[in-house]
Design brief:
The complex is a heterotrimer of chains A (about 260), B (about 350) and C (about 290). Chain A has about 260 residues and is mainly α. In chain A, helix 4 runs parallel beside helix 7 and helix 4 packs across helix 12. Chain A is globular. Chain C is built from twelve helices and three strands, in the order E-H-E-E-H-H-H-H-H-H-H-H-H-H-H. A two-stranded antiparallel ribbon of chain C has the order 2-3. Chain C starts with a strand and ends with a helix. Classes of the chains: A mainly alpha (about 260), B alpha+beta (about 350), C mainly alpha (about 290). Strand 1 of chain A pairs parallel with strand 1 of chain C, so a sheet runs across the interface.
């Protein structure tokens, strides 16, 4: 039993080391970083964080990211809900082909779409807006949300729908007051995955923005290349990008394993 | 094959049990004879599955011992005890064929392939699954899957005991009786000790020679189906077995006589060790009849249901509900009647336990 | 049974429009570029399938594709067994379960370029934790900006760090869904731990493992940001994976035609390989 728990313990240690290093680095002064190796910060400094929270380019990066990620999560889940319901309850002409086609969009390399996306969103006048990134991320998040929600909905017996109709519920009222509460775990899991993939994606987000909606991840790459290698600053910004994910994952911790299991191939 | 003895068994799922309520099993002393067909009957949560898992070795009891032919096996793991268990949901190895499924317990013990072949063939024949031997087990229907799990239990020639944990739960009703009679037949052929856990009285009474009734972690009564039906040792057994269950009516004991609503009720025989005070009278609905001569307990008929050969009458007498099962003529709802209790079947219960003895010569 | 209902299309319509807008229009643009040549000023000339031919014959493409396949192969061969092993060793219940799940999922929630940057900082030869440890404590010469082997090992370990948890979580979800009775029956049948794994755990994990392999295949085959930030494709071209090369051609050199043709070939390979994986892994289900 002891030896067995060593495996996950070592794995978690392996996962935490680079993160520790990033966090440790963010509290070091530039001088200390350049002076050589030190396992712990010798003189703790908040200078890197202060710079991020006082420079609008930096903190607007966060706000931009959070805005488009939230928009994307809401849009993805909202449009996926009825579609997942249709896939789980009805059979219609082309349903299987459509489902498969949706999933293939996850397979397209983002690099393939970078340039056409730039042209498409410029053409419709949405370039450098939050909604552009939110919509673009729907390409891979909507199929995923449909997939997860369909799994959860198929777990709800069909009799629930029928009973509600017999009791005189209209479809919208049934869907919002009875059906949704019974799959709220699924909605949570789907929202979590949409949040996650939108939050971590950079290539499309960077391609579709210039100034007004520039995400934090893109601000970082610019800083890294233009202002020399300010490692402390970079580390602090990186540390801050971990926090939203950590918070979200804490809330859905009990559903993660379940969410994975219920997906359908 | 062996005689199985449970001595002073107690089990608690909490590490530091403080009161009786913390125990899933409260002191069990039981002996299962070699080759017997037993049923372990009780409502959900009464501890019967816990007891079963202790016998199979999946659980180690907090206190007490398990002896197989006087050999202490309390600490032995299941594989070493030579037992077989069939679970509520059919457990089959999806990726194997039916043949490989049946051969699995033998191969794990390193038996020769020709012994394996002989045993598997004969078990398959007994279970009537010979033509399925080469199909993949995953493709079978639930009742056939359950047959295969039973087969895996029976395939070893030297099992001490085969245990069934509510094995018919997921089987379609029309196939249940078929599997049940198959089990009975198997018991007669292999002559292994079998313990059948269920909460369904029909299953227990049709399968077993001896039924062990449990409630709240305690054994309430052990007996043949007839004994359980006729002389329940506890009002719980009376309620639990029979449909509808035994009528249990509050009464006052005074000077050795029982009085229900002020009227004396004739008991089967003398009450033992009962001081005056409140007690209960127990009588099965089968032994309640409508009086023709005006004697008996006054009652008011509330409902009459026709269940085919019999009619079940529900009446209220002195504020208590009394069921009667009648052949032929029955009163109508709303009628006032007098009910008679058959004396030889009228028992007295004190604090739930049987407190009257049968009169001499009955 | 599902009800036959053509009006279900109305429910699907929003998804259809949204994904079609994002997928079909750019895809048509790509197809359009792939058969034309441009010298700027929005002047395009019909090129036919020349770009496809040129790409398929180009050594540069073959090399990048080879590196891509090697990378994906290494990822699958390391992450899938490792993920299963960790899932098997994880506790099934108790206070450690949420702690394990949360810490393990954490790397997946870090923006991809931050992952690259983090590993860059981690592996710097003199001031990175790993780099310092290897060079100064163990005395192994390690600098991934100079040594192609070190660069390869680093991007593979980085991906193992980043994505093994996905396999762990999927395999774990499959494992905890196995009813206890299976383990009890196997114990009574005298099955060894290996037999329990082979005949109970592996078959029950099959569906989730199919998902895991497919997702890991697709994502590792399409990987761009993390290795680009970490190595920039170097030293030399040693870690220039297919997607890195594609972006170089498309946005770096602005060779739209070849880049578009390459995109389509790339996409076709991904689709075909995913289909192949899926068919192979579910083949047994359709037998008998």
């Amino acid at each position: 039993m002891r030896a067995k728990s060593l495996v996950p313990a070592l794995y978690i240690l392996f996962l935490m080391l680079p993160i520790y290093w990033l966090v440790a680095m963010s509290f070091k002064t530039t001088n200390e970083i350049l002076a050589g190796f030190s396992l712990f910060p010798q003189t703790w400094t908040l200078a890197n964080y202060i710079e991020i929270f006082t420079d609008p380019t930096w903190y607007w990066g966060y706000i931009n990211s959070i805005i488009y990620v939230t928009m994307n999560t809401v849009i993805s889940v909202l449009v996926a809900l009825p579609a997942a319901y249709a896939f789980s309850r009805y059979s219609f002409i082309g349903d299987k082909q459509l489902f498969f086609w949706l999933l293939t969009n996850r397979m397209a390399p983002a690099a393939v779409f970078a340039l056409p996306f730039f042209q498409l969103y410029s053409a419709v006048g949405l370039f450098d807006t939050h909604i552009a990134v939110a919509l673009a991320h729907c390409l891979f998040n909507v199929p995923l949300a449909v997939w997860i929600l369909e799994g959860f909905m198929s777990g709800v017996p069909k009799e629930l729908d029928e009973t509600a109709y017999v009791d005189g519920y209209s479809f919208p009222r049934f869907f919002t007051t009875i059906f949704l509460p019974s799959i709220k775990a699924g909605v949570g899991v789907a929202a979590f995955f949409c949040f996650m993939f939108s939050w971590v994606e950079l290539l499309l987000a960077k391609t579709l923005t210039a100034v007004a909606a520039k995400p934090i991840a893109a601000v970082m790459t610019r800083t890294a290349s233009s202002a020399g290698y300010e490692l402390g600053l970079l580390a602090a910004a990186g540390t801050l990008t971990i926090i939203p994910g950590a918070i979200v994952i804490y809330f859905v911790r009990n559903y993660i394993a379940k969410g994975f299991a219920l997906g359908r191939v | 094959m062996a005689q199985i003895k449970l001595s002073n068994l107690r089990h608690s799922y909490s590490p530091n049990p403080s009161s009786d309520a913390d125990y899933a099993l409260k002191k069990i002393d039981l002996t299962w004879d070699n080759g017997g067909a037993y049923a372990l009957l009780g409502p959900s949560g009464c501890g019967k599955s816990t007891l079963l898992n202790i016998i199979s070795g999946l659980l180690v009891p907090s206190e007490g011992k398990i002896l197989f032919d006087d050999q202490d096996v309390t600490e032995l793991p299941p594989a070493k005890r030579n037992i077989a268990q069939v679970f509520q949901f059919p457990v089959i190895y999806d990726t194997m064929t039916v043949y490989d499924n049946l051969a699995f317990p033998l191969r794990n013990r390193g038996r020769d392939e020709d012994i394996v072949k002989r045993r598997v063939t004969s078990i398959a024949e007994m279970l009537e699954v010979t033509e399925m031997l080469s199909t993949r087990a995953a493709n079978l229907s639930p009742d056939n899957k359950q047959k295969i799990s039973m087969g895996r239990g029976l395939v070893r020639e030297d099992v001490n005991v085969v245990m069934f944990d509510e094995p018919l739960t997921v089987i379609d009703p029309h196939l249940k009786w078929k599997l049940r009679s198959k089990l009975k037949e198997l018991h007669q052929r292999v002559k292994a000790t079998m313990i059948y856990v269920t909460h369904d009285q029909t299953e227990a009474l049709t399968f077993a020679d001896q039924v062990v009734v449990m409630q709240d972690g305690e054994v309430v009564q052990i007996g043949t189906p007839v004994e359980l039906f006729e002389r329940p040792a506890h009002t719980f057994v009376g309620h639990f077995i029979g449909s509808p269950g035994m009528n249990v009516l509050p009464c006052e004991v005074q000077g050795g006589g029982a009085f229900f609503g002020g009227e004396q009720v004739d008991l089967e025989g003398p009450a033992t060790g009962v001081v005056d005070g409140s007690a209960e009278v127990g009588i099965r609905p089968e032994f309640v009849s409508v009086s023709q001569n005006g004697d008996g307990v006054e009652a008011h008929v509330r409902k009459v249901s026709d269940i085919g050969r019999h009619k079940v009458v529900e009446a209220i007498a002195h504020g208590s509900r009394v069921h009667a099962i009648l052949d032929g003529e029955a009163p109508n709802a709303g009628d006032a009647v007098k009910l008679e209790f058959k004396q030889s079947q009228t028992r007295l219960y004190k604090d739930g336990w049987l407190a009257s003895t049968q009169a001499e010569g009955v | 049974m599902k009800t036959q209902n053509q009006r279900a299309w109305i429910f699907v319509l929003p998804v259809l429009l949204l994904v079609a807008f994002n997928a079909l229009i750019p895809m048509m643009t790509v197809v359009n570029y792939s058969v034309q040549e441009t010298f700027g000023d929005n002047l395009f000339f019909w090129q036919g399938l020349d770009w496809f031919e040129q790409i398929l014959r180009s050594d540069r493409f073959h090399a990048a594709l080879g590196r891509q396949f090697f990378f994906t192969f290494m990822i699958l061969i390391i992450e899938v067994p490792l993920g299963i092993a960790i899932a098997l060793a994880m506790p099934k219940q108790g206070p450690w379960v949420p702690i394990c799940l949360v810490t393990m999922a954490l790397p997946m929630l870090i923006p991809w370029n931050v992952v690259g940057a983090m590993w860059n900082i981690f592996t710097l030869p003199d001031i990175g934790l790993l780099g310092y440890f290897l060079n100064h404590t163990l005395g192994i010469s390690y600098d991934m900006t100079q040594d192609p082997v070190a660069a390869w090992v680093t991007i593979i370990i980085m991906d193992v760090w980043h994505w093994t948890s996905l396999v762990v979580l999927l395999a774990y979800a499959g494992l905890v869904s196995i009813p206890n009775a299976y383990y009890q029956a196997a114990e009574i049948d005298g099955a060894s731990n290996l037999a329990i794994f082979r005949f109970i755990q592996l078959p029950k994990m099959k569906t989730v493992l199919t998902i895991a392999v497919l997702l890991r295949f697709m994502d590792s085959f399409n990987i761009y940001t993390e290795p680009f930030v970490l190595t920039g494709g170097g030293p030399g071209n040693s870690t220039t994976l297919l997607s890195i090369d594609l972006v170089k051609i498309a946005l770096g050199q602005f060779d739209l035609g070849p880049a578009a043709a390459m995109s389509l070939i790339y996409f076709a390979i991904t689709l075909f390989a995913s289909w192949l994986f899926y068919t192979l892994m579910t083949m047994n289900d359709n037998k008998s």
